């Protein structure tokens, strides 16, 4: 269980309520892939505002489930926020999207979602 994500902080927040843990996992599955898809489209389109908004929305959940790519996601977010047209964040985007895909697949399997 959980190679690509961690539940330490989720369980701490849930204070032993496994139904709450499962609800947070379900929320992860519902929200994070949608925001990741927004990034997948917005980065190549150089839609800075959309990149910033999607990355900013993802940060707390990526951090809570400890995917290990928070700093990379922040780089992508800042690229959008600061409209850094001279910088390329394609590699950072791939790293974030891969981590999200891996975590989503694992959470679905672990929680039967």
SSE layout and pairing:
Layout: H1 8-14, H2 18-45, H3 48-64, H4 70-81, H5 90-111
Strand runs, count: 0
CATH class: Mainly Alpha
Largest sheet: none
Average pLDDT score: 95
What is the SS-derived class? mainly alpha
**CATH structural architecture:** Up-down Bundle
**If you compute it from the alpha carbons, what radius of gyration comes out, rounded to the nearest whole angstrom?**
14 Å
Principal-axes geometry comes out as elongated
What is this structure, in a nutshell?
With 113 residues, the chain is an all-alpha fold. It has helices spanning 8-14, 18-45, 48-64, 70-81, 90-111.
Describe the structure in your own words.
By secondary structure, the protein is mainly α. The protein has one domain: Up-down Bundle (Four Helix Bundle (Hemerythrin (Met), subunit A)). 76% of the residues lie in helices and 0% in strands. It has five helices and no strands. Helix 4 packs across helix 5. It is elongated and about 45 Å long.
Attribute tags:
Four Helix Bundle (Hemerythrin (Met), subunit A), mainly alpha, protein kinase activity, 113 residues, elongated, Sig_transdc_His_kin_Hpt_dom, phosphoprotein, HPt (Histidine-containing phosphotransfer) domain-containing protein, single chain, HPT_dom_sf, 0% strand
